[in-house]
Specification:
heterotrimer, A: 312 residues, mainly alpha, two-stranded antiparallel sheet, 14 helices, 75% helix, 1% strand, globular, C: 262 residues, alpha/beta, Rossmann fold, 2 domains, 4-stranded antiparallel β-sheet, 43% helix
Chain lengths: 312, 286, 262
């Protein structure tokens, strides 16, 4: 699998498919991040797309207005996003149950309007453009890795996808990860065994926004242009779809969702608005009949077959 | 002076709209304990249905309003039955996600049928009043008067009729109501329908003033949630009073300070209040 | 006379206009099994919720090992050494028995996030030890053959066993069990009682709410009887079962049957 991913750009040539691969990588990072706070900690953050946007704008502005190199701007952008995540997480995570998604939705809208109207800083409705690709990395012996080509960006994004997977998998498999799962399972019960649920939620939220910011930063550098739409709640909905259909609370789920659904979206592009109607319908059907998404469904099927063959 | 009065009237008008939407939302929450996230999208459909009926069938304004009300009442009952009811046993998050799906379907459905452009909506009447230094179109007055009448009517309905009593009982104690022989599922569906019908009225009333577009539900629903969270989810009084307060506040702030950051301010206030009191100002502890 | 482990003084709890607990004082000494009885609605679970921080007290103080714990959050009280189960069996249903027993442990709540992400060797060691301890706990509570079963799929009796095991996992000094044998059949009752006795033997003090009088009379060292949120009697099983007010509060039925079985 990894082998295939590594040589993919060599096999799949053609600007358009390669572009899709890069975008999928970015969506996978963002979906993995959402899954951390949603699937593993049980909190529905509807401002996730907004943090993606914050990361995108932060990195872009650091490069464009302050002239930092991408390689400095990106970590700073992530840190900034995470910091904002931490600050907004403190009040919002205190809310219980239903209130949290509503509050994050409102938060997302508030920040979206802020970004869309703060013309001086963010270019307002026009947005930012002319953002440069990441600076070339010098190699020994005088040559450089340049990021002007799409395949180069693909490898960059792939690198970060692997980093994200590594971090997330280490986290959810560890004892600390079990805390988060406990919070998702039953907050009161988690409290009764001594777990500081507020702290757990904040940590999970902050990490989740950090990686959302990472995805955003990569997006702005790759695409070169940025508009307020990248911080709209519609983006949160899209990523929610990727996670839900792929499989909430699993490692593979967001990856599958982040790859196949954007591809499906591109394929259905000619259908324009109907595409989203279809996605909406899919979402409702999934939540009703297959709440654990594709991965969950496969697992259940696998267990079912195992039981049946075991019984025989 | 005239400007101030005019602004206040506008604020009351906006407040009327918010009050009706928030009221529908809080009624639904009170009975089903589900925040109907898709309420904004349904509000939008309400406007478009009236629009459709007026422009394609030449139906007069008030009749269109009633048609839209009825259509959305039925649509609401349908949605409650088909989408939400199977999810009551699942964690609340899943209802939210289903609502997101609904929003996508409704918003993009409207987009596909009518396109993204803002549409103008015919007025109920075109008289313009001049008084006390203000210039007010009759539409605004109509909004306020209709809203107030409807709210009072709804209150009387709940307090004085048997169905209203059933709704009240079910929202306070579902099991108790069942034991008394009330068909709580039906009552739930009817309440949902009522809530969405209210939204349809609000949308149709305000459509001639603010143009209609497929995503018009977004800001309204967000504000409605702010209102019911502040006023207490499930509280009739809280939704109405909160609606008017926010409507006035938003209008006054926009006129006298700036339109740019109103939304940010209001949501900021919400986040702040929730930080201090996580169950809202007058929260009903469920 | 062993040390006083938990002490409640003058507890009052109001819900709006309703006074659920009125001027309740009691103490639990180390090493005993202390039972709380009373008709439905007498405030037993409310008392548990006050002690464990799930409900704020309206008035009164609670001390654990001499330290004031009134007003602390539930997780803080748990960390002091008090564990509890819930009346409605509460487990991490989507997780396996083993996972449940890992989640409850001190190591889980203390393990660092950053060190986990960095994959430090120390963390791997903690995980290994936690897993071993979970296996031991599973043995101890009698669920060693169901370790990989999701908690939600266990039968009622096993679920009760697991919820006790979950509480035990945090290595408490005091365990509050809310109706540990509620809704369980006769064989399972014996297994659970045996488990509770073994836990007491291992040095944990136990406080339980229970309706089944035969169980209560059998294993308790001391009993607290509540009615309408007030203390009606406190003493040895013999003293309490002879107390007139206690008999009255139960109107005789359940009580007479238990007396007969003694």
């Amino acid at each position: 699998m990894i082998g295939f991913l590594l040589v993919a750009p060599l096999i799949i040539t053609g600007k358009y498919p390669q572009h899709i691969m890069v975008m999928c990588g970015i969506w996978v990072i963002a979906s993995l991040a959402l899954n951390l706070i949603l699937g593993y900690t049980g909190q529905l953050n509807l401002a996730h797309g907004t943090f993606f946007g914050i990361g995108a704008y932060a990195t872009a502005l650091l490069v464009q207005k302050i002239g930092l190199s991408f390689w400095v701007a990106l970590p700073l952008g992530c840190a900034l996003t995470a910091f904002l995540g931490f600050l907004t997480g403190l009040p919002t995570l205190r809310t219980k149950g239903h209130y949290f998604p509503i509050t994050t939705m409102c938060l997302g809208i508030a920040i979206y309007y802020l970004i869309a109207r703060w013309d001086d800083l963010t270019g307002g409705a026009r947005g930012l453009f002319g953002l440069p690709r990441p600076d070339p990395i010098p190699l020994p012996f005088g040559s450089v890795i340049s990021f002007e080509s799409t395949p180069a960006c693909y490898y960059l994004v792939l690198f970060f996808v692997l980093v994200t997977i590594l971090v997330k998998s280490r986290l959810v498999k560890s004892l600390a990860g079990k805390r988060l799962i406990a919070i998702r399972g039953n907050e009161d019960l988690a409290q009764s065994v001594g777990i500081d649920t507020m702290q757990g939620k904040i940590v999970s939220f902050t990490i989740s926004t950090l990686f959302a910011g990472l995805a955003g930063g990569l997006f702005s550098a790759y695409m070169g242009t940025l508009m307020a739409e990248q911080a709209h709640y519609l983006l949160s909905f899209e990523m929610l779809i990727y996670v839900m259909i792929g499989g909430i609370g699993t490692m593979a789920g967001p990856i599958i969702g982040g790859i196949f659904l954007p591809i499906l979206g591109e394929i259905l592009q000619p259908l324009a608005g109907f595409r989203l109607i279809l996605f909406g319908l899919l979402l409702i059907l999934i939540i009703r009949y297959l709440p654990f998404g594709i991965v969950g469904g496969l697992r259940a099927a696998g267990m079912h077959f195992r039981q049946r063959s075991g019984a025989e | 002076m005239g400007i101030l009065l005019q602004t206040i009237i506008n604020g009351i008008m906006l407040g009327s709209i918010y009050a009706m939407v928030a009221l529908g939302l809080t009624l639904i929450y009170g009975i089903l304990e589900i925040p109907n996230f898709a309420h904004g999208a349904l509000y939008m459909i309400g406007a478009y249905i009236s629009f459709l009926v007026i422009t394609s069938l030449g139906v007069p304004y008030w009749l269109a309003l009633i048609v839209s009300m009825i259509f959305l009442f039925l649509l609401g009952m349908f949605i409650e039955r088909i989408v939400y009811r199977p999810l009551y046993v699942q964690p609340v998050i899943n209802s939210f996600i289903a609502a997101v799906g609904l929003i996508l379907i409704l918003e993009n459905g409207a987009l596909a049928i009518w396109g993204p452009a803002f549409r103008r909506f015919p007025r109920a009447s075109s008289t313009v009043f001049h008084a006390l230094g203000m210039t007010i179109t009759s539409q605004r007055i109509i909004v306020i008067v209709t809203a107030v009448l409807l709210i009072i009517a709804l209150n009387l309905f709940i307090k004085r009729t048997r169905l209203g009593a059933a709704i009240e009982a079910t929202s306070q104690n579902r099991e108790g109501a069942q034991l008394m022989g009330i068909n709580t599922s039906l009552v739930g569906g009817i309440t949902f329908g009522l809530g969405t019908a209210l939204a349809a009225v609000a949308a149709t009333l305000v459509a001639p003033i603010l143009l209609i577009y497929p995503t018009m539900g977004g800001p309204v629903i967000a504000m409605a949630f702010v209102i019911i969270i502040l006023g207490g989810m499930g509280s009739f009084f809280g939704a109405v009073v909160g609606g008017y307060i926010i409507g006035l506040a938003e209008t006054l702030f926009s006129s006298y300070v700036t339109t740019k950051y109103v939304d940010t301010l209001i949501f900021g206030i919400l986040v702040f209040i929730l930080a201090v009191k996580p169950t809202g100002l007058f929260g009903k502890s469920h | 006379m062993s040390e006083i482990l938990l002490q409640a003084k003058g507890l009052k709890k109001d819900f709006g206009g309703l006074r659920a607990i009125d001027d309740l004082s009691f103490q639990i000494n180390r090493g005993m099994i202390f039972s709380v009885i009373g008709p439905n609605g007498s405030g037993k679970t409310t008392m548990f919720n006050l002690v464990t921080g799930f409900l704020p007290v309206t008035e009164g103080e609670i001390y654990f090992k001499g330290e004031r714990i009134t007003g602390l959050k539930p997780f803080q009280i748990s960390r002091k050494g008090i564990a509890r189960t819930f009346q409605l069996t509460t487990l991490f249903e989507r997780n396996t028995v083993l996972d449940n027993l890992i989640i409850g442990q001190r190591a889980t709540r203390e393990s660092g996030v950053l060190s986990s992400i960095c994959g430090l060797h120390r963390v791997k060691l903690e995980e290994k030890k936690a897993l071993e301890k979970a296996h031991e706990l599973a043995e101890f509570i009698g669920l060693s053959r169901q370790k990989m079963v999701p908690a939600g799929a266990l039968p009622q009796g096993a679920q009760k066993q697991l919820s006790i095991g979950l509480a035990l996992a945090s290595a408490p000094e005091l365990m509050l069990l809310d109706e540990p044998v509620g809704g369980v059949n006769l064989e399972e009752i014996d297994a659970l009682i045996e488990l509770i006795t073994r836990i007491r033997k291992s040095g944990v003090t136990i406080c339980l709410i229970e309706h089944k009088m035969s169980v209560v009379m059998n294993i308790s060292d001391r009993i607290l009887a509540l009615n309408y949120g007030e203390k009606v009697a406190e003493g040895t099983p013999e003293e309490v079962c002879r107390d007139e007010k206690v008999i009255k509060s139960y109107l005789g039925d359940k009580y007479v049957a238990a007396r007969g079985s003694n």
